[in-house]
Amino acid sequence: GVALMFTLVCGSWVLFRAPSLTWIIRAGQSALELGLHLPRTLELLATQKTVLLILFPLATAIEVWQHRTGDEYVIFRLPTAIRGGLYALFYFAIIILGTPDAQPFIYFQF
After folding, report:
1. How far apart are CA 59 and CA 52, in angstroms?
2. What DSSP string runs through 87-108?
3. What's the CA gap between 92 and 98, in Å, rounded?
4. What pLDDT score does 4 carry?
5. pLDDT, position 34
6. What pTM, to 2 d.p., does this model score?
7. Are 17 and 30 in contact (CB under 8 A)?
8. What span, in angstroms and rounded, lies between the C-alpha atoms of 72 and 66?
9. What is the C-alpha separation between 70 and 5, in angstroms, rounded?
10. What tens digit of pLDDT does each residue of 32-60 get?
11. How far is CA 105 from the centre of its chain?
């Protein structure tokens, strides 16, 4: 239920923000290629996909931990050094995965 809803919402975001139908098709093909060619580890190490392959399971593990303990603040109970490392890791991921060109928020266009 939740995973399906999450997938549908993310898919609708892609449709809403995509500049064209061609872009959507190419993005889908890229996603399929990533899933089909994971053994190409050396190539992945040089791309942004590596960051996602590391951070997605980590973020998922934190979410599962929060759900199982019923404590959404579980990350704040980690030792300061570990928590700081996680913050730095996610901060650099935002920088690495971010786009260099700024785009106005979609609602500013109306």
Report:
1. 10
2. HHHHHHHHHHHS-SS----GGG
3. 10
4. 85
5. 63
6. 0.46
7. no
8. 5
9. 21
10. 766 555 555 455 455 666 777 778 888 89
11. 19
